[in-house]
Structures are given as structure tokens and as C-alpha cells.
Design brief:
With 389 residues, the protein is of the alpha/beta class. It has 12 helices and 8 strands.
Length: 389
């Protein structure tokens, strides 16, 4: 505890007062026999009178709800009571109204957008033409770079450009065929250029064949857009082997049909070039094979070079004996005629054509004609001639 000046006491934290008050702070006791008691009595009387008057005044004042002091009304209290009552009455009315109102569920209707209608434009300065007339005009005239074709040939070229054209040359590569191979090698690039000038999507492939027991039976170069690949393939061939008369024609055609990558929708053309017959026991299988190929939009045509082989042999013998070139040639021997008959059967079964019996055109030229059909010989060769210019 700390002492304060002037005799004051301080209180401890527990609230107990430890020091007693000093002398100056003691109260004075009231005794009736003292002289100054009259002054105190007169003061008490005056105080009593004042208190009685105040009690009488307060007794005359009445209070009622809604009124203020001294009978005056309290506007603030009245307004608060009225407002509270109105609010309670409004709540009841609002609840009654809500019970009477029925709210249907909200329905959302999707609005479909209409596709914008484009304005129809008509060609400037050209009268309207019916679709049938336009188709007729297209089929009547079809143009290719460097030439103009009309009628059915123009329609044929248009169809082939959509579908594609695949052509495979199957050539005998035995000892008697070197001149034919060299001729094809020399003219291959020009032939492919003409082919693709008419049908830009045309492809070319090649198969070389000999016979069983030779260095190889078949070799091939797959279908390609690039003629130089076929030229390189042919340039590597050396005409050798083929000691007997018959050759492996069945193996060659089977390789061309099954091993090369033909396009499904294209026109498929195989052109067999040779001067020796197939083995007789293979003929039924050959005819069945090419017939099946023709049913898949394929064509097998043949180029029989037995007449050329015959004339080359007669010329060689005549020069060896007489030292001059013969002026005429004897008829074809029977074994050469048998080759011609066999090649004609193959072409017929394959839905194609045959060139032989005195045919004296270029082999590359005949390959081009057979790719489209002999019916269009003049148009095809005309296109080839214009390409050379």
C-alpha cells in the first residue's frame, strides 16, 4: 500500500482499507443540548414544506398512453405506433395476395437460326443454259494442250482423266528379242510423254520374262508416273536364254496381274510383246487368268512379232549366202503361225486386240494405240505427231 498526501488512504488490490482516517476527517456527532441546534431545525422545516408542495404537484399530473408529460400528446410515439400497425396490416395483405397469385413455370423457347440466304448470281452477259445443254457441250468437244478432240474420243479422254490409266508392257527377253527391247528403250520416254499428254495421271510399268531354267523367269518394274524409270529398267535387260521354243508366258502374265500395284478405279491395260508361244499345258490357265482380269475392267492385248522375226532371219541368211538383201519373203512357217493363233486367243479372252500378220508399225506406237483402243488410232497418233513439233 502506498500513502497519499493529506492523510488520504490508498486501496490495495484486494479492496481492503488498511489505514484509518485522520483527526480532521472525523464527523461531528449531533447532541440535543447544544446551542446551534435551532439553526438546524429551521432548515429542516423549510425542506419539509418544499417536498410536500412537490408531492402535491406531482399528484395532480396524470399520464395516459399516447400522451406526453402534463397531458400533452407525443407525436413521435403516435406515429411509431401507427407505422408499426400499418406494417403489420401490410404484411397480412401481402401474404393473402401471394396465396391468390398462381405463377406458371417459366418456359424458354429456343429460337432457330435461319441460314443466311445468299443472293443468286447469274453469269454476266451470258444467257441461262440448261444443264443438259451444258453436258452436251462438254461431251461434244474436249480440249487438251496442243490438240482439240471432238465427239466420243473427247468423252473417253475426260473419263480417263477422272479414273486414271495404267499400262504395263510384258516383253519376252530371250535371245531373239534384243532389237525389240532396244526399240522400246529408245522410244519409251516419248511414248510416256504422249500418254500423259492425253491423260496426265497415266502410269507405266514393265515385266520381262524368259523361261524356267534361265537366269530368271520374270523381272518387273512397278507402275510409275515417271517414264525414265521404265527406260532405265529396259536398258539393263540383255536378251539371252530361251533355248527351247516355248517361254514362260503364264508366269509373265500372272506377275503383271498380281504383283504390280494397279489402281482400283483405273483402266488397266496389259500389252504382251513376244514371238514365242507359251507352254501348251499352260494355255487353259492363261485364258482363265486374262478373263478374270478383264472382268475387273482390265484389257490384255498382244503384239505378235513373228513376222519381223521371220523377215530378219531370211534377210540374215540371204546376205550370208548371196551378199544382198532379199526382195521378197516366203510365207510364215507353221510354228510362227501357231504363235499368231495363240496370241489371238489370249487377246480375245482378255478383251483386247492383237497386232500381227504383216503389221509393220513401231512397237511403241502400237502400245500407245492399244492403251486407248485401235478405234482411236488417228486421234492418238495425231496427238503424238503434234507433240513432236
Amino acid at each position: 500500500m502506498f500513502a497519499h498526501p493529506g492523510g488520504r488512504s490508498s486501496v490495495t488490490e484486494s479492496g481492503n482499507q488498511n489505514d484509518k482516517p485522520g483527526r480532521a476527517g472525523r464527523r461531528r456527532r449531533w447532541l440535543p443540548w447544544r446551542r446551534d441546534n435551532e439553526r438546524h431545525l429551521s432548515g429542516l422545516a423549510v425542506s419539509a414544506i418544499i417536498h410536500v408542495a412537490l408531492l402535491l404537484l406531482l399528484a395532480s399530473v396524470t399520464f395516459s398512453p399516447g400522451e406526453g408529460l402534463f397531458g400533452r400528446s407525443s407525436p413521435g410515439l403516435d406515429e411509431a405506433s401507427l407505422s408499426l400497425g400499418q406494417e403489420r396490416h401490410s404484411d397480412v395483405e401481402a401474404r393473402e395476395l401471394l396465396k391468390q397469385i398462381s405463377v406458371d413455370p417459366l418456359k424458354v423457347q429456343q429460337r432457330q437460326r435461319r441460314a443466311p440466304t445468299l443472293p443468286k448470281l447469274r453469269s454476266l452477259g451470258a444467257p441461262p443454259v440448261s444443264s443438259s445443254e451444258r453436258i452436251k457441250g462438254v461431251s461434244a468437244r474436249f480440249s487438251v494442250p496442243g490438240g482439240e478432240f471432238s465427239g466420243d474420243f473427247g468423252s473417253l479422254i475426260g473419263r480417263l482423266r477422272k479414273r486414271g490409266l495404267d499400262v504395263v508392257i510384258v516383253v519376252d527377253s530371250t535371245v531373239s528379242m534384243q532389237q525389240v527391247i532396244d526399240d522400246l528403250t529408245e522410244r519409251m520416254n516419248g511414248m510416256v510423254a504422249t500418254l500423259q499428254r492425253l491423260v496426265p495421271t497415266a502410269r507405266i510399268g514393265a515385266v520381262a520374262y524368259r523361261d524356267h531354267g534361265d537366269l530368271y523367269v520374270t523381272r518387273w518394274s512397278d507402275l510409275t508416273f515417271h517414264g525414265h524409270k521404265i527406260t532405265a529398267f529396259l536398258s539393263q535387260l540383255r536378251a539371252e536364254g530361251g533355248g527351247d521354243w516355248e517361254e514362260a508366258v503364264l508366269d509373265a502374265l500372272d506377275t503383271a496381274i498380281t504383283d504390280l500395284s494397279w489402281r482400283k478405279q483405273s483402266k488397266k491395260v496389259i500389252i504382251l510383246v513376244g514371238g514365242s508361244p507359251p507352254h501348251p499345258e499352260d494355255m487353259p490357265a492363261i485364258l482363265e487368268l486374262v478373263q478374270r482380269f478383264s472382268r475387273d475392267d482390265g484389257f490384255v492385248s498382244t503384239i505378235d512379232i513373228t513376222q519381223r522375226l521371220h523377215e530378219a532371219h531370211v534377210t540374215f541368211m540371204h546376205k550370208s549366202i548371196h551378199g544382198t538383201v532379199p526382195t521378197e519373203f516366203p510365207p510364215l512357217p507353221e510354228h510362227f503361225r501357231e504363235v499368231s493363233r495363240t496370241y489371238r486367243k489370249i487377246a480375245k479372252a482378255g478383251g483386247g486386240e492383237m497386232a500381227g500378220d504383216g503389221w509393220d508399225g513401231e512397237i511403241a506406237e502400237q502400245v500407245l494405240v492399244f492403251a486407248f483402243g485401235s478405234r482411236w488410232r488417228s486421234e492418238v497418233l495425231g496427238s503424238r505427231a503434234s507433240a513432236r513439233k
